[in-house]
Every structure is written in structure tokens, then in C-alpha cells.
Amino acid sequence: MKSVTKFVERTVFPDILAWLDEREIIVITGARQTGKTTLLNKLKDHLAGSRVVYVNFEYSSQLENFSQSPVDFVSLQLTETGVTYFLFDEFQYVANAGKLLKLLFDSFSGRAKFIVTGSSSLEIKEIASFLVGRAVFFELYPFSFAEFLSAKDDKLHRLWKAKHGELLEFLHNPEVRSLEPEWIFQDEMTGRFEEYVIYGGYPAIALSSPALREKRLESLMDTYVEKDVVNFLRVGNALEFKKLVRLLALQIGNLLNFASLQSDAGLSYREVRRFVGLLENTFIVNLLRPYATNPTTEIKKSPKVYFVDTGLRNSLVADFRPLQMRPDKGAVVENFVFNQLLPGQRKDDLRFWRTKQGAEVDFILTATGLKRIPVEVKFQALSHPSPPSGLTRYIKKYHPQKAVVLNRNLIARRTIQSTDVLFFPLFFA
Question: pLDDT tens for residues 398-425?
């Protein structure tokens, strides 16, 4: 069976288009195989009729030609009139990338437009330090559940947009209309959700036949370790690095215990810290920091760890069984919700809450205007709106205006003290 080749328009694509006619450099970052090259090709199609130059710096010949004289490389491909668009893929392989982009921007402003991708936020941070006021940055993740549905089932995608809109209205509007408690296509949505959380949202995996997905996920991890970790980031012991990644995969949704990781991986504390940092900066894991009103206390607390893609995580623990058969189903679903909540806001705007006595709320939305809204995740069908004990404790302590309990099926609202609590299906987060 052949793989599906449908192009899925990414949520970030219209935002990038809005900057095409501006002078700033467009920088697109994201993990390997999240679709950055496909996105550049889509931009190339959009720019039909304009002069476009595409360069992939993973190819040594193209990297060498460019590196010999970047200014000449650009200058010789400009047109006498109009703007030439340079699409630079995997720009992290270029030495002194930030300094060089600044030089090109300053030398050819108004004649050349640069659109750059990179797979390591370590290099992007270095680039950013040179490009203050000269660049705009976008992150490309694996398919969100909405993007996945748009590729798989237009009907379910339309349902998702409608219900997600209701959730956003509840979060952001002071007065919310009453919600319809029933929703259709529950079995179909559950099936697609199961497929998504088991195999993840990397485009090549999500759009391939089921028989190929497990092998492609394994290959994706091997490619990441070989190209990014060993060859690019110069990590000497790939086996120790992969062992640590697998240990982290077993801890999703849990507090990160660096001492335990050090012991189990057979690494020094410094190496564990470094490797976790590399994984975060190459878009494999994300760390969720705790919420506290005392910043000094907050800094001392351990973060939680989540994977950017649940399919890659499941590959690392070699478990692709249906959720109902798995002891880790709660953690996998929590990881899913984290990935759906994160895009579109700063990482610091998403936290978790936990007391010394063990009371806990999975997520706290702290972005401007959201006023510390707690979000609790329960992967179970509910027959009535009964709030978890940790959420009740949080409400009594902080008195938020609103709260959310994400579950498998129930749409309902209940007032606890003065807090408006929404029970809503987690598929629409």
C-alpha cells in the first residue's frame, strides 16, 4: 500500500505568509521531520512567478558552494528588479550562522528575502542574538490533533473546530452562553484520537500506512541520534544518550528526578543535565515548570517532562498497544493535552500545581487574561460533573474565575464556590 501524499496546511502557514512581504528574515524552527522542507516547498509554490532560490544545507555540496563566499552566492542570483526569495533549509549547518545572516540582511535589504529553517534551538538562539529587529521566529511541531484530523477526516475536523471554539469561548469570554451537552461521532473521534496518541503526529508517520509506522518511528529516532546528536551536537556516547532518552520516556507526566536519572543511566549529574537540555533544545522533550506564588520556591521545585510527540515516546518504550490495555494510559493522555495546550503561548504561560501534601492540578494557564485557570485531565468517561480533589483544593486556595476538567465524554458546567467549572471532552483541547 502506498503512503498518502496529501499536503496538510499547517496552522502556522498563514502567519508565515503574512510576513513574506515584510523585510524581516523569517526563521522556522522545529524537530527533524516535522515538515519544514514541505513547508518551504509550499512557500515556493505560493511564490510562483517570483525568483526563488532553494538551498538544503544538509547536502555537503550545497553547503560548500555557499560557504566559500556567501555574499557572492546571494549577489549572483539576484535579479535586476524585484525581490529574490532565498529558502535556506537546515541552516544550522552553516558556520557562524547568525553573524552571516546579519551580514546578508544588511547587504541585500530590499533585494533579497531570506526564509530560514533549523532543527536546533541552540543554534537558533545564537542566530537570534545577531538578528534583533531583523527576524521573526516561528516553531513547527508535529501535526496537532486538529491538523491530523484535517488530513484524515474532514467531517471530524469540522467537529473539532466547532467544539474547540466553544472551549476557547469559555476560557476567554467573561460571559459564556450555555453549551449543548450532547455531541456526535463519539466513536469515530475516539478511534482517531487513539490512532493519534499511539503513533503521534510526525507527518511522514501520520500519513503513512499503519504497517509502516512503527518502523518509521524507530528510524526517525535513529536518524535524530546519528545526525543531530552525534554528528552535529558532538555527543560522544550515543548509547548512553539513548538510554537516558528511554528513561525519560518512562517518566512522562512525572516530576523529573535528576539524581535518579543519574543513577539509572550511569551518567554524571552534569551529563544528565546536559543531555536533558539538548533534548529540550532539539524539540524532543518539553519541561513543564511548577506554579507557585513565591518565585524563589518555584525555582527550587522539579519540573515535569513531556515528549513533543507521543508516537516517538511510545516507540522508545516499545509499546503500541491500545490505551485501554496500558498502565501508562493516563500519562500518555496527559502528554497529549500538554502538546495541545502549549502551541500559541509562551512555555512560561503553562504550569502545573502541586503541594507538599500531594494535592495536584495537571495544568495552570497563566497567560495574560486567563487568570490562573486550572485544567485537570481525566481519561475516563464521566456520568456527572464531579471535580477531582486536587482541583477542589486549588479552587479553595486561589479562587479562580474558571476551571476545566477534560474527560472522555461529558459536557457540563458546575459552580464550585464562585468558580465556573467546565467539564469538556479532552479531544477538543
Answer: 999 999 999 999 999 999 999 999 999 9
Which amino acid makes up residue 136? Answer: V
Question: Do 216 and 204 touch, CB atoms closer than 8 A?
Answer: yes
How many Cβ atoms sit within 10 Å of the Cβ of residue 315?
25
User: Using the 8-state DSSP alphabet, how is residue 345 labeled?
Assistant: S
Please give the backbone phi and psi of residue 48, each rounded to the nearest 5 degrees, phi first: -55, 130
pLDDT at 297 over 70: no
Nearest to 330 by CA among 386, 252, 385: 252
Q: Which of 136, 44, 58, 41 is nearest to 94 (CA)?
A: 58
What three-state secondary structure class fits 21? coil
Domain residue extents for the chain: 13-139, 145-428
- Identify whether the C-beta of residue 89 lies closer than 8 Å to the C-beta of residue 40: yes
| CA distance linking residue 318 with residue 415, whole number of Å | 43
Q: What is the dihedral of CA 10, 127, 345, 339, to 10 degrees?
A: 60
* Pairing state between β 360-365 and 373-377: antiparallel
The strand pairing partners of 28, in sequence order, are: 117, 138
H or E element, residue 361: strand 360-365
Helices and strands (DSSP H and E) totals, the chain: 18, 13
Q: 237 near 265, Cβ under 8 Å?
A: no
Tell me the per-residue pLDDT of 186-220, one tens digit each, with 9 for 90 and over: 999 999 999 999 999 999 999 999 999 999 999 99
d(CA 274, CA 86): 34
Task: Give me the architecture of the 13-139 domain, per CATH.
Answer: 3-Layer(aba) Sandwich (3.40)
Distance CA 353, CA 188 (A): 33
Give the max Cα distance, the chain. 70
Using CA atoms, how far apart are residues 11 and 1, in angstroms rounded to an integer?
A: 29
| Grid coordinates belonging to 105 | 540582511
Burial bucket for residue 396 (CB in 10 Å: 0-12, 13-18, 19+) = exposed
pLDDT at 369 over 80: no
Helix intervals (H) in 232-364? 238-249, 258-265, 269-281, 295-300, 310-316, 329-341
pTM for the whole thing?
0.91
